[in-house]
Design a protein that fits this description.
The protein is α/β, with parallel strands linked by helices. It folds into two domains: about 150 residues, SPOUT methyltransferase, trefoil knot domain (Alpha/beta knot); about 60 residues, Orthogonal Bundle (Trp Operon Repressor, Chain A), CATH 1.10.1270. The strands form three sheets. Strands 2-1-6-5-7 form a five-stranded parallel beta sheet, sandwiched between helices. Helix content is about 35%, strand content about 15%. The longest helix is centred in the last third of the chain and has 20 residues. Helix 4 packs across helix 5. Bound molecules: 6-chloroguanine (6GU). The site of 6-chloroguanine (6GU) has 12 residues, from strand 5 and helix 5.
């Protein structure tokens, strides 16, 4: 289980703010996780404390220098079961199974790049290169916090309800079933009858079927990756008939 999260950054305040609130704030205050923000400027050796420089070969923007980053990593004196993670749009796409894998390390180091990126040679010192999606954002800080947020909530005793993390979308490979709370009728919109029935078995089946239905409709790619039970297949067949019926009922003659 992760004990310590390190952030190597030139914008420490972005990371600091994150640990003040909500679940991560509480996790730190109750000693379930610790964080350490390293300002890369503290590992520079020149008068101006420069962490970036112009790219060899020319071109726009600046490139982060390798030496402050490596000096900062060295100074951490990481234990065996640690991982360094480079945040970069060139990394492999972040998925739930990587969050789970990283949550089992003792310490994690996030290398937050900025500007046009980091000196390519940093690759050799990172265990993982991760991207949070097919788009470009300004820097690695927010991306490292996206990862942290996903990891922290997987840690034991962090979520109030122990089973919350296990019931998440994606931890089972399907989308969440829809949730409702009071009032039962709002502006003519009613909560599905079965959820108010108190019949546990029917509720479980309804929820599984809704998960399968919305996964089929919105993310059919996910369905291909999971192992479906006989009951799942039966429900998917019902769903297909229901969808066909719905379409036929709504076609104008
Ligand atoms: Cl990790 N960094 C930046 N700058 N842009 C990204 C990203 C990371 N992942 C997706 N886009």
């Amino acid at each position: 289980m992760v004990k310590k999260l390190h952030y190597l950054t030139t914008f420490p305040e972005i990371i600091e703010a994150y640990f003040k609130y909500s679940i991560p704030g509480r996790a730190v205050n109750s000693g379930l996780v610790d964080f350490n923000i390293v300002n890369l400027r503290d590992f520079t050796t020149d008068k101006h404390r420069t962490t970036d420089d112009t790219p060899y070969g020319g071109g726009p923007g600046m490139v982060m220098k390798i030496s402050p980053i490596l000096s900062a990593i060295d100074a951490l004196r990481l234990p065996q079961n640690s991982a360094t993670i480079l945040l970069t749009p060139k990394g492999s796409l972040l998925q739930q199974d990587l969050l789970k894998e990283l949550s089992e390390k003792d310490q994690l180091v996030f290398l937050c790049g900025h500007y046009e990126g980091m000196d390519e040679r940093i690759d050799l010192y990172a265990h993982y290169a991760v991207s949070i999606g097919d788009y470009v954002i300004g820097g690695g800080e927010i991306a490292s916090l996206v990862m942290s947020d996903g990891i922290i909530r997987l840690l034991k005793n962090v979520l109030g309800n122990e089973s919350s993390a296990e019931q998440d979308s994606f931890s089972h490979g399907v989308l969440d079933y829809p949730q409702y709370t009071k009032p039962r009728i709002y502006d003519e919109l009613e909560v599905p009858e079965v959820l108010c029935s108190g019949h546990h078995k029917n509720i479980m089946r309804y929820r599984r079927k809704e998960s399968l239905k919305w996964t089929l409709l919105l993310r059919p790619d996910l369905l291909k990756k999971i192992k479906l039970s006989q009951e799942d297949i039966k429900m998917l067949k019902e769903i297909k008939i229901e969808i066909q019926t719905f379409i036929m009922d709504n076609i104008d003659e």
